[in-house]
Amino acid sequence: MSHQPKLYLDKERCKRNISRIAQKANENNLVFRPHFKTHQSIEIGRWFRDEGVEGVTVSSVEMAKYFIQDGWNDFTIAFPFYKGMIDGLKEIQNKAQIRLFVNSVEDISLLNRELKKDFKIYIEIDAGYGRSGISINKMDQIDLLVQAANDGKFSQFHGFYIHDGGTYKARGKNEIFERVEDSVDALRKLKDHYPNASTSLGDTPSASVLNNFDGIDEITPGNLVFYDWMQVQIGSCSPNDVAVYVEIPFAQQIDNEKAIVHGGAVHFSKDFIEQYSNRNYGQVFQIFDNKFKPDDGVYLSSLSQEHGTVFGFKKSIIGDHNSIKILPIHSCLTVNLFDVYHTTDGEIIQKRVLS
Fold it and tell me: Where do the D-serine dehydratase-like domain residues begin and end (predicted)?
């Protein structure tokens, strides 16, 4: 263990997660267009390619440019279009096909004036989550957008996309089914209205547990490449599906219940779940026979920039190792804060580093 926090990756688990969802997509005749914002790594991206993935989802123009370096040439940019994207989109179009989230007639016109090559348009739908997109109750507005997309010189209407963030509040598979119902119903309604449209569902809990994908053509989950402690609590996976963790130095014991560690918000973000009658910013666990055993009631209870407080901690948990293993609450955010992956078998895997 070094004197700095390290991000660890279990390659076997990661590849198993990718293979499992790729097989599920194949069995359900779904297009699997994974979101690469979670791993942001050319090498890990190749593991998806090994499973037959051809098109991917990213969250920005810059992320698309990164993966173009490795020959990816079919991107959905899953963020609402804004004018600042224009120059980057022109650059991307020289090497790749693009699908964009465009939710206004004015932006469709702008894109058709500025871009000189064909592109496709998703209409992002809000089925009740409230983050972004057009409300499913505004069918007149949706119809106008579809018509505008198809009337454009270079644009073509492709389909409808929903990311159901409500499933992240679920606790158990039955709650996931209940919370995603509105999104699935919305996509089926749109499919009835536009039979040739592609319907896409984006969240990891739904992709992980749904078995009936009638009316859905595509899934674009990202988090499932690694999963995390939040997904365990949601019911998307088990602790032994989680493929990343952070190892942090133990600093000092404060009392019989608390310890100070070198692991703060710059390593974990400040995402948390409500657990143990408190905020849990990261779950302490141990590894036995390559299986993850969470230490019940032992967790990151508070964070500042570099410092963390582990509640329920006794030095006997780690013995002479002087380091603590933490399952992240939200792997997408935690991974984003590190420059490289250290694999559990001693390799280093590079990832995209934010400039």
Answer: 256-343
Which residues pair with residue 247 across a beta bridge?
6, 325
Tokens of 286: 């141990």
Can you list the domains of the chain with their CATH numbers?
Answer: 33-221 (3.20.20.10), 239-350 (2.40.37.20)
Strand 134-135 to 119-126 pairing: parallel
| DSSP codes, 61-73 | HHHHHHHHTTT--
CA distance 219 to 308: 36
Query: Residue 170's pLDDT is what?
Result: 78
The amino acid present at 312, given as its one-letter code, is G
| Count of CB atoms situated within 10 Å of the CB of 95 | 14
How large is the angle between the packed helices 61-68 and 42-50, nearest 10 degrees?
Answer: 70
| pLDDT tens, position by position, 243-297 | 999 999 998 888 888 999 999 999 999 999 999 999 999 999 999 998 999 999 9
Residue 200's nearest CA partner among 218, 180, 182 is 218
Radius of gyration of the chain from its Cα atoms, rounded to whole angstroms: 21
